[in-house]
Amino acid sequence: MLVFVACCAVLVTAGVAAAANGGFTPETAHSPNAARISTTYYVILGFTAAIFVLVEGLLVVFAWKYRSGGRARSVDGDQVHGHTRLEVIWTVIPVLILAAIGGFVFYKLPGISDAPAATDAVHVTVEAHQYYWQFNYPNGAHSINDLVVPAGRVVDLTVVSPDVIHSWWIPALGGKIQAIPGKTNHTWFRADKPGTYVGQCAELCGLYHAAMRARVIATTPAEYETFIATTAKAGLGRSEFTGVCATCHGMRGEGGYGPNLASNPLLIQTAGLTGIVRNGRGKMPAVGDTWTAEQMQALVSYVRAHVYKGAPSGG
Ligand code: CUA
């Protein structure tokens, strides 16, 4: 019987293992804090898997061994009462297991939550909005939905929200951190190598919560410097339209959940467009309530050149 149970367990776990991640295990960690979260996950998984196999195995063994075997259903088994040694054992062992798990988690916790001291840390503010992410870099540059950082350096994130509660989460680079209106949260990561790491807002924040995807693009230091010095600024209007407006209005402003605005004269009225982007209207959130004049101008220019009346190369 035990062999049968063991075979079943092997078959079940083999399927999961063959599916690589399978959704049961953390993503491969690419930051020290994410690695500590994964380690913690596997330690707890080890304890719980062993307990599961033990309990379910005994259940099957006992169900077999103490089956009725033709006795009348009304016959009682032997009555056992007050087995002190057994009660001490099944109290002390779980306490020790929980203490071991708790001790391990508290040992790992500081390395997960606290950014390591680094003189060359990059400080970025993450602004969560309905329904996009805005990143503010130390030199005043902005980007939308894509956070560009140098690989190998500590990135210290200040996480805020001007509207509702969102949650920043790039699984390969660490745990979730909530973006809460009126509160400033902090998290960090250090991408171990250049690459693109994807994530998603992890807090139901409204209708287009699912559209709040984010990417961290880890680059070489030189590429990062170029990005914040020139690339981000050059692409700002485009990224604002495609990352913010197009979520509801479509990539060419031709409509989606939000109304078609490609031919709306408001698009080329600077004051009107600025007002609606800053303050929202009807079901449209105040997407640009924190935008600088420069950001607003970038959108106005982009929309005028690329979206209004299906201007060439729109989107
Ligand atoms: Cu923002 Cu869900």
Bound molecules: dinuclear copper ion
Q: State the total count of DSSP E strands.
A: 10
Strand content: 15-25%
Gross morphology is elongated
Helix coverage percent of residues?
40-55%
Q: What characterizes the major β-sheet?
A: 5 strands, mixed
Number of helices: 7
Task: Give the radius of gyration.
Answer: 27 Å
Order of helices and strands: HHHEEEEEEEEEEHHHH
Q: What class, by secondary structure content?
A: alpha+beta
Sheet with most strands: strand arrangement: 3-2-1-5-8
Task: Pick out its properties.
single chain; 315 residues; alpha+beta; five-stranded mixed sheet; three-stranded mixed sheet; 10 strands; 42% helix; elongated; binds dinuclear copper ion
What would you say this structure looks like, in words?
The chain is built from 7 helices and 10 strands. The chain is an alpha+beta fold and 315 residues long. The strands form 3 sheets. A 5-stranded mixed sheet has the order 3-2-1-5-8. The structure holds dinuclear copper ion. Dinuclear copper ion (CUA) binds next to loops. Dinuclear copper ion binds next to loops.
Q: Quick gist of this model?
A:
By secondary structure, the chain is α+β, with helices and mostly antiparallel strands.
Question: What secondary-structure arrangement, pairings included, does this model have?
Answer:
Layout: H1 2-18, H2 32-65, H3 84-113, E1 122-129, E2 132-136, E3 142-144, E4 146-150, E5 155-160, E6 166-168, E7 177-179, E8 185-189, E9 195-200, E10 213-219, H4 221-234, H5 236-249, H6 270-279, H7 293-306
Parallel strand pairs: 1-5, 4-10
Antiparallel strand pairs: 1-2, 2-3, 5-8, 6-7, 9-10
